[in-house]
Amino acid sequence: MTGNFVLLILFQRQKNLVTFFSHFSSVEPYGVAFRYFYRPPNISPMCRPIIKQLLFSVVLLPLSLTLLSAQENFKLKYTTSSVHAGIEVGSKGVKLSVVEIGANAQTRGAFNILKDTALNTDFISFSQPTFHATLLGLYNLYSMALKDYKIPSNQVFTTVSSGVKIQAEKEDKTNWINKLVDSFRLKINEPERDVKVIDVLQEARLSHLGIVPEGRRYNTFLIDIGSGNTKGGYFPNGNTNYFKLFQLSWGTKSMANATEKRCDYDNGISNFYKQLYRVASEVENSEIIYAVNESGSYPKSDNIAFSGGIAWAVATLMYPELVDNTVVAVTFDKVANFIDKLYNDHASLSDVAIVKNLTDKNLDKALIAKEVKRVNQVFDQKSLMAGTALLLKIMRQFESIYEKKQFFLVKNGQVGWISAYVDQNTPK
């Protein structure tokens, strides 16, 4: 009962809890439950309202403390909102996103990243060390959400990404996913804990619903470049009933790995760049051109939006002064110049070098330095080059002398699925 009660309070559209409580008796299942527990046979009818109010307060007190403690951990952006956490096992490791979701989030895009933590455990290596590292990371991040951030367990969503699912199926290692889920449930002592293994269509659709505001939903083609794969798509018919899927079997990590294999004994950056050009051209000719044409997205999409780790990294390094912007507009030519800079002058993209060249005194240089440093901790030079090369090859399919598309890089794409997931899996 408590879990459903929390969700009812969180997703009521009243302005405050008092308004909701005044309507408590109108929620029949909970009214029935309350009357069941409240049956004092030998108490005067005059005393019963007082006792009922006392019992009601006892029920609500722990709940109120839970809600307050969860929200007091963070500086919230919206006046009417709720705090949720999403934990995802991805190709590179485990990610925790703590998100504030405002009222009408899917209409207005009202969600705010409160905490974003990633642990690189390389689960898709499917070895005992990486399995145990992933299980420990999953457990620690789940415990952090509950104990440190005071988020109720029914507001913490746990999933395994489509990239992991695809790689496991490719290598006949699906049993590793099942073993991870069972071990996690045992470790947290929640045998009924829902850990969804999301397929590529579900993930792409949820990401679009969570990232793209409703006003641009039907003219935006969203492409999420992950570590092991790329997925995305759009709604071609002007409604959300049908989602046209776009997918590639390549991501930032798989591009970098394929390039490394071609380098043989010459691991220098010059040879890597040369081999990367060849790998990217082959991927373009074997998959990208066909996938974009088959999607039918070109004539129906005005906006081409990219999400995923590489989109965040490129946007942050190209436009550090826009650190507070969650979406950054770019052009094909500027991204092409950026990959040349990655190769020829990678040192100029360090946090120290970037902050040194900022001239606007109103900028928060400490925040910019922190974000740039975080990018360089997640992606080394070769990974940045590999992911940007894939990004460019996809962008190239939408470059035309006849019609110009608007390109956008979405920095907070990792919270897209959770905002949509929460919206679809909670009472309205």
Write a brief caption for the model.
This protein is of the alpha/beta class. It is 51% helix and 16% strand.
List keywords for this structure.
single chain, 428 residues, alpha/beta, Nucleotidyltransferase, domain 5, 3 domains, six-stranded mixed β-sheet, five-stranded mixed β-sheet, 16% strand, disordered N terminus
H and E string: HHHHEEHEHEHHEHEEEHHEHEHHHHEH
- From the 3D coordinates, which CATH architecture of the largest domain would you assign? 2-Layer Sandwich
SSE-based structural type: alpha/beta
Q: Please identify which CATH superfamily of the largest domain we are dealing with.
A: Exopolyphosphatase. Domain 2
- Number of structural units classed as domains: 3
By DSSP, the count of extended strands is 11
Unreliable parts: 1-41, 50-69
Q: Approximately how much helix is present in the residues?
A: 40-55%
Instruction: Enumerate the strands of the largest sheet in spatial order, edge to edge or round the barrel.
Output: 8-7-6-9-11-10
The amount of beta strand, in percent, is: 15-25%
Q: End-to-end distance, in Å?
A: 17 Å
Shape: globular
How many distinct helices?
17
CATH topology of the largest domain: Nucleotidyltransferase, domain 5
Query: Whole-number radius of gyration?
Result: 24 Å
**Sheet with the most strands?**
6 strands, mixed
Mean residue pLDDT: 81
Please report the first level of CATH classification, the CATH class of the largest domain.
Alpha Beta
